[in-house]
Amino acid sequence: MKIAIYCGSSAGNDAGYVEQTRKLGHYLAEQQIDVVYGGGKVGLMGTIADAVLEKGGRVYGVIPEYLESKEIAHPHLTELSIVPDMHARKARMAAMADAFVALPGGPGTLEEIFEAWTWGQLGHHAKPCAFYNIDGYYTPLLQGMIPQMVNAGFLGSSYADMIIQADQPEALVTALHRYQPPRHKWS
User: Does the domain at residues 2-178 carry the CATH identifier 3.40.50.300?
Assistant: First the structure.
């Protein structure tokens, strides 16, 4: 299995984000699960890559040319693909991945996981999408905005329910393996 991980190019203000990201990376490597990510060596991106590599796992980075040239590309990955732009990065990562997981991050992280989630709703893929909710980072979204979308009639409950929520590595991997996609939106 290859999991696309979306996460911050910053480490955040709480050391728990780094600690829990490292724990997840170690667990994924021990379970022989490969990671596909944005190719950076900074922030939680660098943390997840380093953690998987420390335990002998495989990490595939996909980075746009303009970020690679600023020397933020991770130099020790299993494989690094340099693509023209962010659109090509997302398409390459989606094609390589069997699942999508968002760790803490900013608007780019949300944009990437929301796009993967939307593609799942539309039947573009049948891959699981998950929020790895370190220290309750995504709780306001998962318990506030997403239920509001359902209540307001903009999101069907089956599509809200397709999002996996986990805060422990074992629970995340178990849920990814057990995932059954809902019927896609326009079928």
Answer: no
